[in-house]
Structures are given as C-alpha cells and as structure tokens.
Amino acid sequence: MHPAEGEAVRLDGSSLTLEDVAAVARLGRRVALGEAARERMARSHAWVVAAACGEIVQSDGTPMPVYGVNTGYGSLARLRISPDRIRALSWNLVRSHAAGVGPSMPVPVIRAMMLLRANALAKGASGCRPALVETLCAMLDAGVTPVVPSRGSCGSSGDLAPLAHLGLVVFRGPDGASGRAEYRGRRMTGAEAMEAAGIERLVPGPKEGLAMTNGAQLTAAVTALACHDADRLVRTAEIAAALSWEALRGVTRALHPAVHALRPFPGAIACAGNLRALIAGSTLVDSVPDKVQDAYSLRCTPQVVGAVRDAVTYASRQVSIELNAVTDNPVILVDDPATNKAFSAGLFHGEPVGFAADHLKLAMCELGAISERRVYRMTTGLLSSRLPPTSASEESPNLGLMIPQTTAAALVATNRQLAMPSSVDSLPTCEDQEDHVAMSTTAARRSAEVLENVWRLVAIELLTAARGVRRRVEHGQGAPGAGTAAALALVGEVVGQPGPAIEALARRLSRGELVDAVEAAVSLQGVSHG
Q: Would you state the CATH architecture of domain 4-215?
C-alpha cells in the first residue's frame, strides 16, 4: 500500500475521526505525531524513567512501587522488579502475550488498530517515548502490517494478544522473535519487513511493553470501520426500500412528515424524508385504487430503519470517544500533585465499545431482516401486487428469484445466530485478578460479520425490486422517481447468474457506488455520528 497524497493526519490524542480512521486504514493516508503530543509524551516518559531508576521514592525513602514499571503484572503486581530487569520485563510481556490464534485480521482492520494505538499513546498519559508512536506512523506510511490473529482477546485488559503481535514487530528482544508481517504483498518475518521498509525496531523501555499491549484498540478498530460503513449501508438500504415500494406499488401516506412529527425519533424522520425524496415523481406508488395501507415490511420501514439509524448514531458516538481515549494502565498524570503520578484504573475495559458493537450488530440484524421480508413479498405471487410468482420471467420460464430469496433467508438466520450480545458473557482470567472481562472483541468481530451479510441482503433486495419495477414499467403501470431511476440504472449494469451477481452488486454497494449515483440525482440525509 502506497501512502496517499495530501496532508497527513496529525495524531494529538484528541481529534481523530471515523473518517480519518477509514482513510488511513483503507486509503493509506499518511500519519504523523503532533508536536504538542510529542512534548506530553516526553514529560510522562521522563517520569516513568525516573520511577524505573528508583528516583521516585516513598516517605521512608524506598523506591515507589509503580505497577508495570517496577512490579509484575496482573496477579503478580506485588512482585518487585529490580532496575536491571525492567527492560526484560517489557519484552517478556510482549513475548508472552503474543498468544493469538486463528486467521489474521484483515489488513485495513490491523492498520486501524495501529493508528488507534498510536493516537492513544499520543495523549501523553502512557509514559512511553515519542519514538514508539513515530515507529507506528512509519509502519503505516510504508505499509508494514503485522499479522494479527483474530482470536484470543477477551477485551479486558484490552486486546492484549492482538496488540502483543503488533509489539513483536515493533520491538526487538534478546531472543530474536519478531512475529510476522505483510509488506508489499508478501508475508515475511517482522524483522525482514521492517528492514525492507527501512524502519528501525525499538528495544522496549520501561512500561513500553505494557503501553503497547494494554488497550482495546482491536475492538475499537473493527467497530469504527463498521460504524463508518453502517452510514453508507443504511442509505443503501433506504434506496432498496424505495425501489421495493415502487415494485409493490406501496402507499406513501405512511411517509407524510406530519405523521412522523407525532413520534419524533430522529432516525425515523430522516428515513421517511429520504424515502420521500427517492420516490418523488414516481407514478408507480399510490397506483392501486382503494389501497389504504401496506404490510409492515413497507409501512414500518421508517420505524425500523429509523431505529437502526439511531442505533448507528449511538454506536458511532461511543466509538468516536474511544478513538481519542487513553486505555492504558496505569496512566501517568504528570500534573497531579501526588508524588506517585501513576494511577491504576480500568480504562482498558472494553465494555463501552462492546456495548456499542453489540447494539450496532442487533440493529444491522433488523436492517437485513426487514429487507428479506420485502424480498419475500416481491417473490410471492399472492403478496406482490400481481408480480409473477417468484418474479420469474415470462420469456424464459425458470424459478425466477426463488433461490436468491432462500439465500436471503439463510443470511437472516445466520445473523440471528450471531445476534446474542457478546458483552453479557464473561469468564475470569489472570488468576481471577481479571474477574470480569468484556468479550468486546467478539462483539466487534460479529458486528462486522453481520454487516457483511447485510450488504448481500440489500443486494438481493435491489436485484429483486429492480426486476419488479422494470416489469411494471414495461407493462405501462407507471414510472420510477428520480432517485429510484438512478438506482435502477446502476443495478441494471449487474447481470449474470444470481450468486455472482449478488456478490458483484454487494461489492459495488459497499464501495458506495449506488449511494453516489443516487445522490447525484437526489439529496439524501446521512446518519448522524452524534
């Protein structure tokens, strides 16, 4: 991956956005450490070095015990570490925690994780050198991506194993371990990748092994990218619903703004407004005499998709806080008047983002479920306002879209199996020192998996609705609105066997091609990030 042109994202621990994360993770936008952040990091690092050297003392003159600097970790926190063993302590932490298993996380997710860890350290409360963040920035710019297994994190104390696999590439220790990394399309040892990119690996200093691993950045990375994509997915689902509204010749009185003012949820109001904009000018809707209302899968679209919008707003707001948060332990508060400026707390706990990921996952499940219900109506003769059964073609008799609807049903069932909130689960670790863990990483991974399934569900709905609308137009039953006409044109470009067509369209949807095409014709309201 080559660095993108343009101004670098300046890491200051306070101003990173979801859009920044997506740009760095997927487009290779450059990153750099801000000057103010560098100064903050230097101050906290100086205090940690003083503590490691025994210069910070208690009232009796003995060295101040500082967790993770001159003590052991977790349940071994009472164990004191001599100054000559502190560097080994940092390396041994990284080495021992790199115990993840399973396939590697996707490259964009790992890049997002690296960016978020660098930004958290840039806050200046972790006690590590500015060189650590600068190394992460150099890796991002050069395209050195550690191989990070997808399984092995409970989300508390943060994403220990995934971040340790990152640490193996960043740091060098006496045993020569360096993990694995991808560089310019090839997988190699971390040491080889860093050497090829011209980036020097660091010998971990006091607390730096802990600072690298003690955070919830994999959870946040997966959820941040999911929230970023969910905005586009919601608008895409609304476009599909509008096209289905025309295919089923729905009644638009359910979208009247005065109706939604009576129950003023922001998401429902925005969804109804987008649907009105998309079908404006359509002569297919409201075209069945004496039809006063539709089934829930049409009529309640603003309520269901609107609730999804509000859920995405909540999740995005939570994640946006996390993007600029410290998730370390202990944190170094250099301006605090106390002699011991290291404060042990629970900022690493994944619950805030775990809840957000679970909520996003449940919302996406419903976005896909109501989409499938509209597909079912359009492929069921008695429910489709006289479309052919299974939406089969008269010119080429076959089973029509019966099997794509079956695929949609299978995807909905899979999403429901993934829907159990992961954050309600907990198993104690670390000799019961970590006796309540978040399982937030699982919540995030499952949220992303559900999102991927919903792209396919919406693709199936679009293919089905497009066939229905084209048939109605060919039989002189009306014409689509300006927004749905733009959607119809793009969907019409995807032809071929159902399975490949679904995958091809889902990829184009996820790249934003449909939203871009439609928004060239009508203006749509995006999802608020809070």
A: Orthogonal Bundle (1.10)
